[in-house]
Amino acid sequence: MKLCLPVIGSHARLANIMSDDFYKANFYCIHDLTNDHSQIVSKNELIEDFGPDFRKSKEETRITAVISPNIRPMAYKILADNAIEVFKAAGKLVSENIERFKKRELNHFPLNEVELSKSCSLSSCSSCSTTTCPTSAQNK
To answer: Is 13 exposed, middle or buried (0-12, 13-18, 19+ CB in 10 A)?
Structure first.
């Protein structure tokens, strides 16, 4: 089981600080709960290793949960469609959130807190795609 958390950077100090937004992050911490090992990867490496929808990897190596302080509708939808649980971060430190996850102290991300862009709403998100969602198009 692997967790994915957005982080500020790849250097030691920055790798333990959560980025404010899952979608806007340039680096991610991938934490493997089976061996309690973390690695920091860039956004491009994350997509290359796991695919843009996290379905590329095999079942035993796939990301099964995301922890983030903020998430956008399209990212939330893609994760939910791929049975990846999304948890609300409970602090700014990656290590703290991993420990809280292990202790089952994190809550699932509340749907009413998913960040909406001015031209997007969750009610229309069920019919959007990566080509039509304005929050998804910004990252291309």
So the answer is: exposed
